[in-house]
Design brief:
The protein is an alpha/beta fold and about 210 residues long. The chain has helices at about 15-25, 75, 80-100, 120-135, 160-170, 185-195; strands at about 5-10, 30-35, 45-50, 65-70, 105-110, 140-145, 150, 185, 205-210. Helix 1 links the parallel strand 1 (about 5-10) and strand 2 (about 30-35).
Length: about 210
């Protein structure tokens, strides 16, 4: 297998940090670029960290695959406009820049329920992101639509903690066609992103729900 280079955006979050570890461990990737606002505080011979202003930056790196794990909450950023910037504008901006620089593949985390017709602002923004990315023209665009993501976050999300407890009780009941509603560990998503990035026969756009991740 030919060694490749990757660019990760959102490597400080729960899934992104796990994905970064997997990429650094993988023999398939020789160079792993990371865009971040603050230093990750780690050293690795494969790692190339780029501290950037996400609003102003217009540069690119040589990367075969773009991994996007960006995501926030309105509660954290305070306004719908700020939420839209993180969950829509940044992913699309860097996707367009990297596509222009020759990036062939993109792996991106969206959310279950993404729909332009949703009554929920969050789901409409995710749908707009997906639609914008599909217009760019990557050889492979894999969209991951997990249900509730579980794992040990640095930031405190009390609502997610309660939901995780509830899902722990009902997950065993979600079988068959209902499996897509099961909560999913962040590590499993990260592993699936790595796996799908290395598939040579997966072309065009693929959308994976929790039961297929």
């Amino acid at each position: 297998m030919q060694t490749q280079s990757a660019l990760v955006i959102g490597a400080t979050g729960l899934t992104g940090s796990l994905l970064l570890e997997l990429l650094l461990e993988s023999s398939a990737y020789q160079i792993v670029h990371v865009y971040a606002r603050r230093t990750l505080g780690m050293q690795h011979p494969k790692l190339q960290e780029h501290l950037i202003d996400f609003d102003q930056y217009q540069g690119t790196v040589q990367a075969h695959t773009l991994f996007c794990c960006l995501g926030t909450t309105i509660k954290k950023v305070k306004t719908k406009e700020a939420f839209k910037k993180v969950d829509l504008e940044y992913p699309v901006k860097f996707a367009r820049l990297q596509f222009g620089a020759g990036t062939k593949k993109m792996m991106v985390i969206s959310a279950m329920g993404a729909s332009a017709n949703s009554s929920f602002f969050y789901s409409r923004v995710k749908a707009e992101m997906e639609a914008s990315l599909q217009e760019i023209g990557f050889e492979q665009l894999t969209i991951f639509r997990p249900a509730l993501i579980t794992g040990n976050r640095i930031e405190h999300r009390s609502g997610e903690k309660i939901a995780t407890m509830i899902n722990g009780w009902i997950n065993p009941l979600l079988v068959g066609s209902l499996r897509k509603y099961q909560s999913i560990p962040a590590l499993k998503i990260a592993q699936s992103m790595l796996t799908h990035s290395l598939l040579e026969n997966e072309k065009g756009t693929s959308i994976l729900l929790s039961d297929k991740i």
